[in-house]
Write a structure and sequence with these properties.
By secondary structure, this protein is an alpha+beta fold. The protein has three helices and four strands; from the N terminus they run E-E-H-H-E-E-H. The protein has one domain. The chain has a four-stranded mixed β-sheet with strand order 1-2-3-4. The protein is globular, with a radius of gyration of 15 Å.
Length: 116
């Protein structure tokens, strides 16, 4: 049985944005989706830091407005949510992806508190 890879606290980590299709596609690596001109790994990870959207150099009032603009338009295709045996799927809205990650981190913190 394979263990699910834990996602960092960044909704853009490991993805590539295809603007033509309003899609953010899982690359299963350390790519930063906000670096749309070319492939670029996460700057925080390169610096030896844990990737985290809230402290990333891309996080600013301007990027918060961009997120608000794309949250209903952009479809996200994370591998862990792909329906088993489905050849095609619609992905999920970016705002739902953000909520999924937030809920998952909450559950992890809750379990960590119970184990300590």
């Amino acid at each position: 049985m394979s263990k699910e890879k834990e996602r960092p606290a960044c909704p853009f980590y490991g993805f590539h944005i295809a603007p033509k299709y309003n899609a953010m596609v899982d690359q299963e690596g350390n790519q930063c989706a906000l670096m749309m001109d070319s492939y670029s790994p996460c700057k925080m990870e390169i610096q030896g830091l844990e990737p985290c959207w809230n402290i990333c150099s891309f996080y600013s009032s301007n990027s918060i407005e961009i997120v608000k603009d794309i949250e209903h338009k952009l479809r996200v295709f994370p591998r862990e949510l792909h329906p088993p045996k489905a050849r095609e799927w619609e992905g999920i809205a970016f705002k739902d992806w953000m909520k999924y990650l937030e809920d998952k981190r909450f559950e992890i913190r809750k379990i960590e508190k119970l184990n300590n």
